[in-house]
Amino acid sequence: MTDKEDPGKKGKGKSKVVCGYPLSIFFIVVNEFCERFSYYGMRAVLVLYFKYFLRWDEDLATSIYHTFVALCYLTPILGAIVADSWLGKFKTIIYLSIVYAIGQVAMAVSAIHDITDSDRDGTPNNMTFHVVMSMVGLFLIALGTGGIKPCVAAFGGDQFSENQEKQRRTFFSVFYLCINGGSLLSTIITPILRAQNCGIHTQQKCYSLAFGVPAALMVVALVVFIIGSGMYYKAKPQGNIMLDVCKCIGFAIKNRYKHRSKNYPKRQHWMDWAEEKYDKLLIAQIKMVLKVLFLYIPLPMFWTLFDQKGSRWTLQATTMDGNFGSLVIQPDQMQTINPIFILTLVPIMDSLIYPLIGKCGLNFTPLKRMTVGMFLAAVAFVCAALVQIEIDKTLPTFPSNSQSQLKLLNMGTNPVTVKLPGNNQLSLPAAQASGEYFTFETQEVSISIGSPEISKPISLTKGVRQTLLIPSNISDEWLLIDDLTSKPEEGNNAIRFINGMNTSVDIAAPAVDFGLIEPLYYSNYSKIKNGKTTFTIRKGFESCEYSRDFGFGSSYTFFIPSTLVLGPNCQQSITASEDIQPNSVHMALQIPQYFFITAGEVMFSVTGLEFSYSQAPSNMKAVLQAGWLLTVAIGNFIVLIVAELAKIPKRWAEYILFASLLIAVCVIFSIMAYFYTYIDPAEIEAQFKKDNEDDEDNKSKLRKLEVEMVKKDSLKNQDEDDEGKMSKM
């Protein structure tokens, strides 16, 4: 069969039929699964890549993330126009998938760096290349994924003939499952890949692998789709209704503006000014579409909240405890809760909740469902704010720009007494650190230690935490070292060792080498993952092992006393000072906010698409789909505007702001919904067609009457001529 064959004929395309389905759709289904895995897998780790690899602050990372998501929902309009007006669906999918794959490869390349040009933690020193490559990659991905979005599902539907309606419905159900299945698996797998350490000599997380696997899956998606090329039915471009709609609206506006100052009779609707050029049925259909699009005006606010799952909520999870017993959840893996809840809630809502509400006698219309969905999303952000308040309670109090903080560590074998300005006398046990930091408003502090007392002035640094190392002989030099002034990133633990021995020691752990620590000196901080870690301490040919369990986001200073004897008692001899306590708020507390946002999505998004489909004319469903996607894009732009302009210092306050804005919009939408009148586009179209047919009948009758009148006039004239001739005779 060629492209010119009737699309309704049985045996569409060259595809064989397997179990009643065209074999070609299996290639399309596999393509969609791989493409969705590629997109959601890359997106799951994207905001962490911005913050921890490119070293952007949270506001910039959030802004760029939502700009990318917005572009992904703007480009479907371009893809639909190209497919319907120029290339057709098949070629559009092929060409844009190539662009898509190149973008994914560019993202993977952007996360590769030379360890010789990196900091100790593996962060590249020169970011220009990585930023440029990632931005190019994201632009190509947005163009590709958005461009093929309106084409793939419709192309799959094209493969069925008219007598395969049941199979077509099953295909769309499987297609939807592939989207959620790819999303679920990718948000589980790619965070695991990201959490790996790339290379032996660097502790940088493996973003190149986390982006590389989605890139490989996109290449697989493209190859699978091309393999099925000979089996597809490829409908030729039929013209794009969106362009026709835009032209008609443009003509109506232009014509109305042209006659604004003339005494033309008023028209019932401003679209009626297009009647001079366009068919009345098309104008009526556009009126129906505009009526629904007007209802779309408040909708972007829902997406403003919803898409922060992948940005703000993921960053929130980095400050929480992901230990679920034998299972450790990465911050970006919490996004998997959304597709799990979707697959659970959709059938529950359809088969239980909605019928139960109907039996209670309540008219739970689609617009009422959408209103409730918006309210649930606001509740989700209130939950997120409450979780953030609990997190803030556990965060350490770091010094302000005008303050200094000091901790003391007794490196000697005997306890000492310490007098600090403005504080009670402190007794410090041997080989122990003070349990807290002392805050000072001045830089110069006089400290008295021991008996007899030895007083020394200490010059502290503003805005910095420091530890004072008190030697065994307090008359020796006192060493002041800098501590961390922020929580360790990505849930890692920051660890350092202080050597109180008179000989050098070498300390190493799996994937971490602290190196050789000189006598009475200290190591730099190194990142340690959560869980049990064993440190090997070597002095010459002697060694011992020291083990400890770590949580998430803590900082410890381990002190090796001068009395240490390498051997089995090593574990008891080394003392630990907790500089920053581990994350204590559990990630499980995010589950309620994910539940409410997903319940809101099911009631808002699924119902909204159903409502739009039911209220759209048969030939303009794509127009409303484009309008729906546009609300998603605008919602993401609102996020970046708030993130860049509001600059709210407290994250919980920002969550409350978003929730309040959505509640306000929810009230406005409920009022608009109250005055909306549901219509049956098919009935209106049928009435227009009937009226047109009646008009045609009337015109036909009028033409017949005119012909008969002409004939009568002709006969009358002929008779008059004959009478004239007779009279002359």
UniProtKB/TrEMBL annotation:
Tell me one GO biological process term.
protein transport
Which GO molecular-function terms appear in the entry? symporter activity
Catalytic activity of the protein? glycylglycyl-L-isoleucine(out) + H(+)(out) = glycylglycyl-L-isoleucine(in) + H(+)(in); an L-amino acid tripeptide(out) + H(+)(out) = an L-amino acid tripeptide(in) + H(+)(in); glycyl-L-glutamate(out) + 2 H(+)(out) = glycyl-L-glutamate(in) + 2 H(+)(in); glycyl-sarcosine(out) + H(+)(out) = glycyl-sarcosine(in) + H(+)(in)
UniProt keywords, alphabetically? Cell membrane, Glycoprotein, Membrane, Peptide transport, Protein transport, Symport, Transmembrane, Transmembrane helix, Transport
The Gene Ontology CC terms held by the record are: apical plasma membrane
Localization terms from the record? Apical cell membrane; Cell membrane; Membrane
Ranges that cross the membrane: 21-40, 60-81, 93-115, 127-148, 169-189, 209-233, 288-306, 340-358, 370-389, 622-643, 655-676
**Membrane disposition:** Multi-pass membrane protein
Sequence similarity: Belongs to the major facilitator superfamily. Proton-dependent oligopeptide transporter (POT/PTR) (TC 2.A.17) family.
Briefly state the protein's biological role: Electrogenic proton-coupled amino-acid transporter that transports oligopeptides of 2 to 4 amino acids with a preference for dipeptides. Transports neutral and monovalently charged peptides with a proton to peptide stoichiometry of 1:1 or 2:1. Primarily responsible for the absorption of dietary di- and tripeptides from the small intestinal lumen. Mediates transepithelial transport of muramyl and N-formylated bacterial dipeptides contributing to recognition of pathogenic bacteria by the mucosal immune system.
Q: What is this protein called?
A: Solute carrier family 15 member 1
Recorded source organism is Channa striata
